[in-house]
Amino acid sequence: MTHSYYSQRAGLGPHPDGLPLKDVVDLFVRIFDQLREDGYFHEAFGYECVDAGFIPGTVRDPNLEILLAVRKRDLWPINTQSVNYSEDDFFDMIEFLFQHVSKPVSGPCHSWGNCGTHWDVFNQPEGRKEFCEKANVALEHYEKAFELSLTGEVLHKPENGFEPIFAAELPLSDDNVISRVNSSTLRFRRHGATIDDRRQAVRDLADVLEYLKPKIQTLLTSKDESDLFNLANNFGIRHHNDRQKTSYDASLWLNWMFYFYLSTIHVLTRKIHQNGLSARQSRLSH
Q1: Residue 73 to residue 95: CA distance in whole angstroms
Q2: DSSP string, 155-202
Q3: Whole-prediction pTM
Q4: Rounded CA Rg of the chain
Q5: pLDDT reading at 75 higher than 60
Q6: Are 123 and 115 in contact, with CB atoms under 8 Å apart?
Q7: Weakest-pLDDT range from 12-16, 86-90, 140-144
Q8: How far is residue 277's CA from residue 280's CA, in Å, rounded to a whole number?
């Protein structure tokens, strides 16, 4: 949200913590209607012509396509079915529409009866980008913190202050690290992620640090290194035995461990990168 108004800043509005699902779905449906009117879904779902009637799009039967994609019935058309959407239904439809949106680029103008432009050239990447921005305008008002990613997945929003870490790239080309960190992040943030999903995400990050261990031993004291792996090794993350400490609030502490390990990986890989540059520069100077 780019600007908050007086009652929002003062916490005096009827929904200081955000809108309930029903209201956010209604906001999104209005945004969808505007985008469809502007041609962003003409390529997929077709449009009406005053002369030719309905012109079908690439998706001839939206209900069938939705059933095949998300294995659910009675989600289409959005305008009538959205009143019954659960949170899962709502997020499924956002992701489904992301797959089928495309920005109208050009087409002949049909002036008779103010029919409008019959778009026949579309740009899907641009359409998805703009759809993502519009969908997030609605999701920003939800009482729960979610966002639509640029790859079309509804994810939990990062904790306040940690947003930049998800946009930052790791300064190395090792796919063993990059792919594991990316999959761990996605597993942790995905809508519907369970405690086990989040525990696995933390375990994956600990495994990344284990993989980097030979390179980071010179950067840490033995105590720092011990403390770093103590969390994963003794708090029911990587091992399962009667010596594990498991009597903690998993939802709270897994969240903390995830951000701790993710931040540590970013710091250490940057330090490794800097040391590598310094070593190369030293060799070149000699």
Answers
A1: 16
A2: EEPPPTT-HHHHHPPPS---HHHHHHHHHHHHHHHBTT--HHHHHHHH
A3: 0.82
A4: 24
A5: yes
A6: no
A7: 12-16
A8: 5
